[in-house]
TrEMBL record:
<keyword id="KW-1133">Transmembrane helix</keyword>
<feature type="transmembrane region" description="Helical">
    <location>
        <begin position="221"/>
        <end position="241"/>
    </location>
</feature>
<feature type="domain" description="ABC transmembrane type-2">
    <location>
        <begin position="20"/>
        <end position="244"/>
    </location>
</feature>
<dbReference type="GO" id="GO:0046677">
    <property type="term" value="P:response to antibiotic"/>
</dbReference>
<dbReference type="InterPro" id="IPR052902">
    <property type="entry name" value="ABC-2_transporter"/>
</dbReference>
<feature type="transmembrane region" description="Helical">
    <location>
        <begin position="167"/>
        <end position="186"/>
    </location>
</feature>
<dbReference type="Pfam" id="PF01061">
    <property type="entry name" value="ABC2_membrane"/>
</dbReference>
<dbReference type="InterPro" id="IPR013525">
    <property type="entry name" value="ABC2_TM"/>
</dbReference>
<feature type="transmembrane region" description="Helical">
    <location>
        <begin position="102"/>
        <end position="127"/>
    </location>
</feature>
<dbReference type="GO" id="GO:0043190">
    <property type="term" value="C:ATP-binding cassette (ABC) transporter complex"/>
</dbReference>
<feature type="transmembrane region" description="Helical">
    <location>
        <begin position="62"/>
        <end position="82"/>
    </location>
</feature>
<comment type="similarity">
    <text>Belongs to the ABC-2 integral membrane protein family.</text>
</comment>
<protein>
    <recommendedName>
        <fullName>Transport permease protein</fullName>
    </recommendedName>
</protein>
<dbReference type="GO" id="GO:0140359">
    <property type="term" value="F:ABC-type transporter activity"/>
</dbReference>
<keyword id="KW-0046">Antibiotic resistance</keyword>
<dbReference type="InterPro" id="IPR000412">
    <property type="entry name" value="ABC_2_transport"/>
</dbReference>
<keyword id="KW-1003">Cell membrane</keyword>
Length: 244
């Protein structure tokens, strides 16, 4: 077993000892969807041109919740805590480069994100007959770009913060508008048109996710903006990141 695999295994065991974000990322979006799905009016047939029920339109917002929670709450706090406690500095004095610890945390949290979205889609489809995306490749591309962009923003927060509390506060600046524009606080159909238009180009790409479901297909400009966010956030995080 190589060094990265050993560190990842160790970090996984540590994460399972304080499993708040792990359980939240895996279960919370599905639990919220199940509660809403138990309400008959929420899952009632729709007369809209797309035929999407309220519950069907809600699932992309829960994908946004999963990505944002892990990328903008879990990752910044964990990495800033390691810096605050001097763990990264101590790693720098060993043959093990501290970047491997960072990569291990990214592997764990991205895996939880993928798992949470997978459980959400499986439960929504089996229990509530929510259709799968009609454009699966468009969904996967949007999910990849959106997840990369959000985790990049989380790493920026972790890069400039000296404490875990500061990292959480900085990440909250991005977390709240992303949740609002992503339709988590208020369903997107109820938002003003101008707000919906802005949300269409904000990571993690809720409009592109919705279009993947309906079959309309994500607009190239939306994907280009997501890609720009993904590259820009990761490059900026790399330039700002400090081990101490």
């Amino acid at each position: 077993m190589n060094t990265l695999a050993k560190i990842t295994l160790t970090e996984t065991k540590l994460a399972l000892r304080t499993p708040g974000f792990v359980i939240g990322g895996l279960v919370l979006p599905t639990a919220i969807t199940a509660i809403l799905g138990a309400i008959p009016a929420i899952r009632a047939d729709s007369e809209t041109p797309t035929g999407m029920r309220f519950l069907d339109a809600w699932v992309p917002s829960m994908v946004v919740l999963t990505i944002a929670m892990m990328g903008l709450q879990a990752i910044p706090g964990i990495i800033a805590t390691y810096r605050e406690q001097g763990i990264l500095r101590r790693f720098a004095t060993t043959p093990v480069h501290p970047a491997q610890l960072l990569v291990a945390q990214l592997i764990i949290n991205v895996t939880v994100t993928i798992g949470g979205v997978g459980i959400l889609l499986l439960t929504a489809g089996v229990v509530f007959d929510v259709p799968t995306p009609r454009h699966p490749l468009g969904f996967l591309l949007t999910f990849f770009l959106g997840t990369t962009a959000i985790f990049g923003l989380g790493l920026i927060a972790a890069s400039v913060a000296k404490t875990s509390r500061a990292a959480s506060g900085i990440a909250l600046i991005a977390y709240l508008p992303i949740m609002f524009l992503g339709g988590v606080y208020l369903p997107r159909p109820l938002l003003p048109e101008a707000i919906r238009d802005i949300g269409a180009y904000i990571p993690p790409g809720v409009k592109a996710l919705e279009d993947a479901w309906t079959g309309a297909g994500a607009q190239p400009l939306q994907l280009a903006v997501l890609a720009a966010f993904a590259v820009g956030s990761c490059v900026l995080a790399a330039k700002l990141f400090r081990w101490e």
